[in-house]
Amino acid sequence: MSRAKKVLLAALAAATCLSLSAAIACTNGQTQTDADIINGGFETQSDEWVGWTNSGTAFSARGVVTDDAVNDVTVDKTGERWFSGLSGGTSSFTGTLQSNTFTLSGTGIIAFKMGAAADGEKIYVEFCDADGTVLEKVTNTDFDGQFITDQLIRKMVDLSDHIGEDIYIKVTDNDTSRDYEYGYVNLDDFVMCATQDDVEEYEAERTAQLEEYAAPSFEEDETESTVRNGSFEDGLNNWLILEGSAFGKANVVPTSQLYWGEFKSYGEGDYYFDGVNNGSVAESGTGSMRSTKFTLGGDGYITFMIGAAKNRSTYVAICDGETGDELIKFTNDTFNDPNLPNTVRRVYVDASEYIGKVLYIKVVDNATQDFGFINVDDFRCSLTEEEVLALEIEQYNAINNMPEADRDGKWSYLKSYYDDYEYPVAMPIVRIDAYVTNKVVAPSDSVNVTAFLDEAQASYGEEAIDGFEIIEIKHGETNITEGFDSVDMSQGGAYYVTYAVTYATSTQQATFTVLAQDTTNQVANGGFETGDMTGWTILTEGWAMTEGKPAGVIGDSTWWAERLPYNQSGSYHLDGWNTGIAEGDTWAVRSTTFTLSGSGWMTLKMGGNAAVVKVYTADGTQIGEYKQTQFTDAGFPNVSVGHWADMHTYAIDLHEYVGQQLYIELCDVAVSGWAHAFFDEVITYYETAPDVANSYDTVNNALGQTPETVQFPWILATNILGA
Predict the structure, then answer these.
(1) What phi, psi does 289 have (nearest 5°)?
(2) 144 and 198: one domain?
């Protein structure tokens, strides 16, 4: 008889099967007996079942797949193919899948793999004799819903008392639950163990799988003074998942693993906890986990590292070990995207009022958006002041003295964080307490730059010190190393000044910018080339500060891992992500006053869905309002299709106001729908009107996108004031 005919007869026989008594719960009525399980690993497959007969809707042949994962869980398949219950139907479908009848041989032990199938009352695998009597029934007792879900875990069935008998396998799915309730079954690699070596091999595989996928171990001794495995060097062991899907073993990743493809976590040791590295759940997952209990000692200091967690529903709590009450709640108030998004940085908590009390650390994620995940590392408890001081110095020096080769694009922002952090114990190192602010001066052949150092203040521990000196001044390709009392700035442009203060063996450096610019007919610092908001008046409360200067201006020419272009001119631009103002709030900054001259035209770059420029006469009368018009949330990340933070040049005709004094305001006016604003290169003087129709900016497209370069045509801005 041909195989095709045998399969056909088997299918016909299976189709006529009816429900029997409980004593013979499965039967196929097949008379043909084979020497082995046909297609036990599902490696031979077409549009129709080979070696298996299905009934109902849960076991369609399309469920035989080559995927390595389901629900972002690596299934640990054997060979190329396996059966996926999700692909074979849907979670709510029901039915049966039945093998050929075969003669049990070898050791009488059958090995196979099983995953999902959460409810063993409804989903199971039966091994039946030729009469339909159930010899063994197997359910997925390894499923735990958190760590072992879709994985194909090896099972062993001892049928040695039935060697030489004709048997078959029947898989039943009577579960109508939804997908997330795992109301389906994954299957692979049904095989008879011919020898004891086969048995030992499969048993070893099962042991290794359970060790890899099983829940972390958890033991605690509340008399200890710190938490166990606070740095995650031992995976998630000694952390207890309290609820939800946001926390799992996959969240513990090497500190060497880059986020967004190019940025370091800057965590301690070899591993840290990455809240978004948890498969398909990612940011959408919620939940909480806690540390082992400890009795707070020392001087009551607790320290740890935190990143991401922009959404305030993600946080770290120090909890009462008896009641579970949250005694201290810590959110990531220094979150900054894109400068310090997922990077972890150290914080210190003074919990001295709870010395002698049993506590534990709880990490909470109750957010599903807006960086609604949390990264943590290196929890240390019960520190003394001396231990805190030693750690402060260690961390401070590690960042400030980090070799160039070990830095990435976030390092300078991380350095600023540790430079400005309010440490609980004063360090015996030089710290700059007040920085020299950036300056705008008229071009001159003699500018006393040394005089600007009077603004700077420094301390060593708790002692005020002085002795600031200029190291060098850079202007373009020119380095000025002397004569700082009289610097030739007649050429105009940005002069970058490096200065330092030394005490004992400790030295600190900082920089400020002197912008030599004629501001008669131009706004001061229209290109933000001082690196900050010098020349601009901030009209909104809550603006962030860095090194004593208003933040918001950055030097990044691209954004996110896709390296989308800002279309920045020069070295800096005003970036709405870095103002410290929330996306759901608005902001505005005002320029210096200028006399409109020449042709009466001005241009500026703006991007984001919230960007608006407003024009006023010197007495405060608004004469114009111009909104960006290019924002398009489509085709991400290709800027030939969509536009987001990329800036376009807008030309504004103000010729009827020539000779008048004006000022402008750069504004963020939106509170939803990509409510960000970006600005650069404000030019308020053109001798002749710019050729808007034939002008464009050329930018590099996002990483890996075509075309590689894109032309952004200049745009004639429309006055919407009063519209």
Answers:
(1) -145, 160
(2) yes
My answer on whether 527 and 509 are in the same domain is: no
In this structure, the answer to whether residues 540 and 514 fall within a common structural domain is: no
Q: Above 50 in pLDDT, residue 428?
A: yes
Report the pLDDT value the prediction gives residue 30, as an integer from 0 to 100: 44
Q: Which long-range contacts link 531-534 to residues 24+ away (Cβ below 8 Å)? A: 531/438, 531/555, 531/571, 531/572, 532/438, 533/574, 533/589, 534/437, 534/438, 534/439, 534/440
Closest residue by Cα to residue 346 from 398, 401, 406? 398
Q: Which two tokens stand for residue 200?
A: 């030992």
Residues 604 and 695 in one domain: yes
Confidence of residue 361 (pLDDT cuts 50, 70, 90): very high
DSSP codes joined into one string, 581-637: --TTS-EEEEPPPEE--TTSEEEEEEESTTEEEEEEETTS-EEEEEE----B--STT
Does residue 112 sit in the same domain as residue 193?
Answer: yes
Is position 231 within any domain? no
Say yes or no: 684 and 671 in one domain.
yes
Q: What is the mean pLDDT of residues 201-222?
A: 94
Q: 588 and 509, same structural domain? A: no
For residues 563 and 577, what is the distance between their CA atoms, to the nearest angstrom? 16
Answer yes or no: is 233 within a domain.
no
In a domain, 456, yes or no: yes
pTM score over 0.85 = no
Point out the least confidently predicted range of 159-173, 295-309, 495-509, 605-619: 495-509
Look up the CATH number of the domain holding residue 707: 2.60.120.260
Instruction: Name residue, tokens 């200067």.
Output: 549
Q: How many CB atoms within 10 Å of residue 303?
A: 20
Domain encompassing residue 535 = 519-723
In eight-state DSSP terms, residue 55 is: E
Q: What is the CA radius of gyration of the chain?
A: 34
For residue range 525-571, what is the model confidence (pLDDT) as tens digits? Answer: 999 999 999 999 999 999 988 777 888 999 999 998 899 999 999 99
Q: Give the whole-angstrom CA distance, residue 644 versus residue 642.
A: 7
Kindly report the length of the chain.
723
Identify whether 707 is preceded by a cis peptide bond (ω within 30 of 0): yes
Given the structure tokens 């398009």, which residue do they identify? 632
Same structural domain for residues 550 and 630? yes
Q: What is the pLDDT of residue 18?
A: 30
